[in-house]
Amino acid sequence: MDYNAQLLMSLPELVLGAGGILLMLVAAWGGQASTRAVSLAAVAVLIGAGIALGGPASSGGEAFDGLYRADMFAAFAKALVYVAAGVSILIAPGFFQRTSGDDLRPEYPVLILFSAAGMGLMVSAGDLITLYVGLELQSLAAYVLASFMRRDARSAEAGLKYFVLGALASGILLYGISLVYGFSGTTLYAGIADAYAQGSSTGLLFGLVFVFAGLAFKISAVPFHMWTPDVYEGAPTPVTAFFASAPKVAAMAMAVRVAMEAMGPAVEQWRQIVVFAALASIILGSVAAIGQSNIKRLLAYSSIANVGFALIGLVAGSEAGVASVLFYMAVYIVMTLGSFLIVLQMRGADGQQVETIDSLAGMSRTRPGLALALAVFMFSLAGVPPFLGFFAKFAVFDAAVGAKLYLLAAVGIAASVIGAYYYLRVVKTMYFDEPAPAFEGRAGLVEGSLIFASAVVISFGMLLLPWLSGWTTAAAHSLF
Predict the structure, then answer these.
(1) CB contact at 8 A, 205 and 145
(2) 154: Cα within 13 Å, side-chain hemisphere
(3) What is the residue-level pLDDT of the chain in tens, covering all 480 positions?
(4) Within 13 Å, how many C-alpha atoms sit on residue 90's CB side?
(5) What is the DSSP string of 192-258?
(6) Can you give the pTM of this predicted structure?
(7) Are strands 68-70 and 61-63 parallel, antiparallel or unpaired?
(8) DSSP state letter for 347
(9) Are 134 and 119 within 8 A, CB to CB?
């Protein structure tokens, strides 16, 4: 294939990489004064990368001798990543000015761009080495973002914990990759699938276990979830919103591609691992969230439970199952970003962030619009119809039933009832408890617009179901 055609397939990553390097130079020369310009330019770069998803980047097929895949599946996941990354950049200036006492530094949007470029490589990887390079590019940027508030002890602790546990997970993943390579003789997904199709040896089976263990850390699935609550609580709230959305989508898409393309013939082997991770994540996330008093920790355990629901679609191992995972993740990032946008508005009289659930008491009377929006997100996360979250859960359960996994679907539905308790507790606190001191300040134009748009999408998203279902079905079909 012509080399220029292959470069066109990877154009989104080229745009992000070139844009990130250029803006890094601007930040180095312009200093603090360039922050606003760099942030706006970074959003423009993300828009450019999104435009580049059309054409060869979404339908080109294999590039660079199978190392890279340009298909609808990757394009769908990248579109979600770019949206989440753009929102994380737009909401950062107000937070840092109010909370840290420092203006936002221009390195923040640059790190987001490099992280997004790494996530693009993750979802388009057709080879385990490409996967690992993308994973590390995303992770290295994320470690810095987690500890971005240098004088905040919680942020520094979050960055350190994320780095140490991330390094451990990378080691586990690398060991799995080395086992798979040793027993299959290749790191290309197609060659690995051929090796599994010929009969899974003990070495290949151990490689499969270690690879899925490393991937489980990146999606914060049980039992590799331990970093999530502490990092979500300690990291700056815009960074937490980013961690809870974009990397989750990228890691889930990466896991789906590895499971379907590289290890598709070994579906019965990895299905057992994924079933355990799905049920354990749903149950632990739901039960552990009940006793939380910090809203960011509650949303951290909520994200663990939501990953479990998405994994139910992967367990089905079918085209419908993959489509349900994509559908779920699309709805999930809207609900999550909307929830964290509300958390950003929780500020005391001193302008500092307030994170306790008790501080939401009586918000329906002091900030009715904000309370209504948060109630919409909580009801949707709980899976209450007619909100869009209900249809997302219905999709993954329907895929499980279609694969004759009736017990898995039944346990998942029962566990979702447990999860509904802590979501509804937040609504009860806002609408029925005695009012706590009202939050100070009002949402800016950008934040307010994003909250309104997210709430509208979640409330009336059922009108988008034919369009969204068609897109996810086409994306899943390209993987098969």
Answers:
(1) no
(2) 12
(3) 677 788 888 889 999 999 999 999 998 888 888 888 898 999 999 999 999 888 787 777 887 888 888 889 999 999 999 999 999 998 888 777 766 555 678 888 999 999 999 999 999 988 999 999 999 999 898 888 888 877 777 778 888 888 888 888 888 999 999 999 998 888 898 888 888 888 767 888 888 888 888 888 888 888 888 888 888 888 888 888 898 888 999 999 999 999 888 887 888 888 888 899 999 999 988 888 888 888 888 888 989 999 999 999 999 888 889 999 999 999 999 999 999 998 888 777 666 777 788 888 888 888 888 889 999 999 998 888 888 889 999 999 999 998 888 888 888 888 888 888 888 888 888 888 777 776 766 667 788 888 899 989 998 878 888 888 888 888 888 887
(4) 21
(5) HHHHHHT---HHHHHHHHHHHHHHHHHTT-TTS-TTHHHHHHHS-HHHHHHHHHHHHHHHHHHHHHI
(6) 0.91
(7) antiparallel
(8) B
(9) yes
465 CB contacts (<8 Å, ≥6 apart)? Answer: 391
Q: Helix, strand or coil for residue 318?
A: coil
> Which amino acid would we find at residue 283?
I
DSSP 127: B
Q: Is there a contact between 131 and 253 (Cβ–Cβ < 8 Å)?
A: no
Give yes or no for a contact between 63 and 468, defined as CB atoms under 8 angstroms apart: no
CB atoms within 10 A of CB 79: 19
Segment holding 165, helix H or strand E: helix 153-184
Q: What angle do CA 145, 146, 149 make, to 5 degrees?
A: 80
List, in order, residues 6 or more apart from 253 with CB less than 8 Å away. 73, 74, 77, 122, 123, 326, 329
End-to-end alpha carbon distance in the chain:
22
**Can you tell me which residue has the tokens 């080109």?**
60
Q: Distance between CA 304 and CA 417 in Å, rounded?
A: 15
Estimate to the nearest angstrom the gap between the alpha carbon of 348 and the chain centroid. 29
Token pair of 467, please?
Answer: 């369009």
For 261, the token pair is 């393309």
* C-beta of residue 38 within 8 angstroms of C-beta of residue 23: yes
Max Cα–Cα distance, the chain, nearest Å = 68
| 60 close to 13: Cβ distance less than 8 angstroms | no
CA 97, distance to chain mean position in Å, is 26
| DSSP count for the chain of H helices, then E strands | 22, 2
C-alpha torsion angle, residues 168, 169, 174, 176 (rounded to 10): 120
Tokens for 247, please give them: 């990397």
Which amino acid appears at position 330 of this protein?
A: A
> Residue 70 forms beta bridges with which residues?
61
